[in-house]
Amino acid sequence: MNLFRRFLPFAPLGNDEFAINWDSAERRFVLNLAEDLETIDDLSNPVLRRLFPTAYPQDPERDAGFQIFARTARLDQRSEQLKVLRETVEAKTMTGEQLSAWMGIVNDLRLVLGTILDVGEEDEPPPQDDEKAHTFDIYHRLSWVLTHMVDALTRTLPESDDD
Amino acid sequence: MATPLEVQDPDLDSTTDEETDTDRPWSVVVWNDPINLISYVSFVLRKLFGYSEAKADRLTLCVHNNGRAIVASGTRTDAERDVHRLQSFGLWATMEHND
After folding, report:
1. Which of A77, A109, A148, B10 is the most exposed place for a label (fewest CB within 10 A)?
2. SS3 of chain A: helix, strand, coil, percent, to 5
3. ipTM for the complex?
4. Which of A150, A151, A153, A159 should we substitute to test contact with B (largest number of B Cβ atoms within 10 Å)?
C-alpha cells in the first residue's frame, strides 16, 4: 500500500476490507444526526420530500401506490443502516457493505441539509446567519467524507466492458 | 340529410389496459440536482447496472449537462424496481413511456 493511502480516511485493503481512518467522534456525530432524522416522521415535510421523489410524474394514482411501497422499504433500509452504524462507530476496519451503509446515511444527510440550505450548483459564500452557517459547515464536511467514501468503494467495483 | 354518428376517439392515454401498458417499454430517467456529487451518481450507476466506468461517466455527464438522462429501460415492473433502487441511493429518478 502506498504511503498516501495511510492518510486517506477510507482505504481498500483487498478481500472486501477497508481501513478506516475516519475519526470516530465525527462518526458518532453523523450517527446522532441520522438518529435525529429518524424522529421526523411527518412524511409531508418538504425536506423529506427530497428523499421520496415522484416515480410517475404523469400518473399521480400510480405514484401513490409506488410511494406507499417505497417509503416502507426506505424506512426499513434506514433502520438496517443505523444498526450497522451503531456496530461500527469505533471500528478500525469495515466490509464494503458496512461502508456502504455509512455512505447511504451520509448521502441522505447531505440531501436533507442541502435542501434546507437550498444549495445551488455553484459554490456559494457561507450564509450570514449563524445557525445556517453552522449547517453549511456540516454540509461541506459531509461532502468531503462522501467524496472519500465513493472513491474507496469505486476502486473495488469490478471492471465491465459494456462499451 | 342524416348526421353522421359521433364516434368517440379511444382514450389513448388511458393506462387501464394492462395488456397494452406492459407491451410499451418504459424508460428510467435520472434527473440533475444540485446536491448529489457527480462521482456518487456515477458510482451508483455502476453498482446498480454493472455499467463500465466510461458508460456511467457518460450518462452522469448527460444528467449534469442536459438536466436528465435515460439510464435504463424495460417493462413496467423492471422500471419500477430500478426507480426504487436508484431512489434508495438518493438519486432523483422517475419513469416514463419510451414512445
Report:
1. B10
2. 60, 5, 30
3. 0.91
4. A150
